[in-house]
Amino acid sequence: MSVFARHRAGVAGAAVLAVAVLVALVAPLVVPADALDVTRVTGAPWRPPGAGHLLGTDHAGRSVALLVVRGTGTSLFVGLTAAALSVGIGTLVGVLSGYFGGVFAGVLLRVTDFFLVLPSLVLAIALSTVLPRGLGTIVVAIGLTSWPSTARVVRAQTLAVRARPFVDRARALGGGHLHVITRHVLPSVVPLVLVTTTLAVASSIVAESTLAFLGLGDPTRISWGALLHQARLHGAVPQGAWWFLLPPGLAIVVVVLAFTLVGRALETAAAPGG
What we know:
about 270 residues; mainly alpha; MetI-like fold
């Protein structure tokens, strides 16, 4: 922890993430539903930033600032849950293939290689197209297509742990596979998994934004990618409404960068001698 505290970029990233999480939690309480309802909003469309609207208004007269604030929760939720699913699958496959070996590991590795050679974004788009629209579909599409890299990293770490003397001693003392995996392998893999999870959240947020931008997101939810989709769909560029494009795009960049900085700091702290 002291190593992480000395990593200024990581601490700055953690501070940004704390603010983003706070905004996501508070947004439903402070943003009235009427302000985002296109059938009840009274603001003028395409109004530039000013005293009445800090970041201007969109095509329907809604405040862009309120839209970006409300979209924080959706983007973070999808990023965190999709990353948890992805890292969970990757950790399970990586530990099992690295610990047991043999034909079983060979099958798991072939499945991993199959998913590795497929473009994850293209596969996620295909899944989002054939499955019912919704946040659950986006989470599943991202999680099921982005786990192979985690599996490879965890497998390499598991192979290194399996070769250590304390694992042989545990087996000699009668420890079964479940005991060795839960008591010896997983504790050695957890720091690496934590770093991978942090970086996976950043990738998942970008993937969700891409899917939403392409019109494959949940049409009932506001997210940063969905705002960019609405901006493209309703002609923000021809209107010169840069204020509808820039805020959600910057929000994606800042939060993804923050997760990346935290992940790099955790990687430094988890490194041997770190």
